[in-house]
């Protein structure tokens, strides 16, 4: 376990619970999306324990291993894109996105979710972190894997919508009497999350929305600028 002091890990705990909920929903609905939630134990208002993420690296590529890793990459990338949009996860620089030996993407550090962002500037206005490099791993924007990625996002979104109340209930419970930064907009935090499920859209309209979200994220100037800022200030490539 990793011991952390001087940080309020209750937001990490909320994120962990939401990730578990989304993972359970997709397993129940038989959608092959993959998340890797890591355990969080809150011991006080400024300390706690985090489960370390192991095997966060990638090895040599050969044809069969690469195809398996590519599929794992696509399935996990689609999963985290959805949760990053629905939960409004920010501070998505490359130091907070890991890759395990099997090709799965793993997001860490959920200190900025829902209503809060670094310095509360709202600089990262992309729906989620999706770069041209990610698309290249999938085989390019004209590849079958890239199309599979968008199909998975639609299937995952539809499954999440069916179970929206389970996710919102977790947020509402944690919000009650809370002073956490992620609830700094009060009741509008839950209302905004509810709106992001787009319950008013048909399946076809939701597919169009996903295409728009993917295109917006792929060509986001603020994503490029934020990655550049992290490289200049923290040396994060």
Give short descriptive properties of this protein.
237 residues; mainly alpha; 3-stranded antiparallel sheet; 8 helices; 5 strands; 8% strand; 1-phosphatidylinositol 4-kinase; kinase; Kinase-like_dom_sf
Verbal overview:
Residues 1-222 form the PI3K/PI4K catalytic domain. The chain is mainly alpha-helical and 237 residues long. It has eight helices and five strands. The strands form two sheets. A three-stranded antiparallel sheet has the order 1-3-2, with helices on one face. Helix 1 packs antiparallel against helix 5, helix 2 (63-87) runs parallel beside helix 4 and helix 4 (144-162) crosses helix 7 (203-218). The longest helix is centred in the N-terminal third of the chain and has 25 residues, at 63-87. The chain is globular and about 55 Å long. Mean pLDDT is 84; it is low at 1-6.
In terms of topology, how is this protein built?
Blueprint: E1 2-5, H1 10-28, E2 40-44, E3 47-50, H2 63-87, E4 97-99, E5 105-107, H3 132-137, H4 144-162, H5 164-175, H6 187-196, H7 203-218, H8 221-234
Helix pairs in contact: 1-5, 2-4, 4-7
In summary, what is this structure?
The protein is mainly alpha-helical and 237 residues long. The protein is 51% helix and 8% strand. The chain is globular, with a radius of gyration of 17 Å.
Low-confidence stretches: 1-6
Q: How many helix segments?
A: 8
H-E string: EHEEHEEHHHHHH
Largest sheet: 3 strands, antiparallel
Q: Give me the count of strands.
A: 5
The strand line-up of the biggest sheet is: 1-3-2
| SSE-based structural type | mainly alpha
The Rg value, from CA coordinates, equals 17 Å
Estimate the strand proportion: 5-15%
Averaged pLDDT, please?
84
Envelope shape: globular
**How much helical structure, as a percent, in the residues?**
40-55%
End-to-end distance: 26 Å
């Amino acid at each position: 376990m990793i011991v952390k002091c001087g940080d309020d890990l209750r937001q990490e705990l909320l994120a962990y619970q939401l990730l578990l909920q989304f993972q359970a929903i997709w397993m129940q609905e038989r959608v092959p999306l993959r998340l890797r939630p890591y355990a969080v134990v809150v011991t006080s208002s400024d300390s706690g324990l985090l489960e370390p993420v192991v095997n966060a690296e990638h090895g040599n590529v050969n044809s069969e291993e690469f195809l398996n890793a590519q599929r794992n990459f696509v399935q996990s990338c689609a999963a985290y894109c959805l949760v990053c949009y629905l939960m409004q996860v920010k501070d998505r620089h490359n130091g907070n996105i890991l890759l395990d030996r099997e090709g799965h993407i793993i997001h860490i550090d959920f200190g900025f979710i829902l209503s809060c962002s670094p310095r509360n500037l709202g600089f990262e206005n992309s729906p989620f972190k999706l770069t041209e490099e990610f698309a290249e791993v999938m085989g390019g924007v004209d590849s079958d894997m890239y199309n599979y990625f968008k199909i998975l996002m639609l299937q995952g979104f539809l499954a999440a919508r069916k179970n929206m109340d389970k996710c919102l209930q977790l947020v509402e419970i944690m919000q009650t009497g809370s002073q956490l930064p992620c609830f700094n907009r009060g009741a509008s935090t839950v209302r905004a999350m509810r709106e992001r499920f787009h319950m008013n859209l048909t399946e076809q309209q939701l597919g169009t929305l996903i295409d728009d979200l993917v295109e917006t994220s792929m060509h986001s100037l603020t994503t490029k600028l934020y990655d550049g800022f992290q490289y200049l200030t923290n040396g994060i490539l």
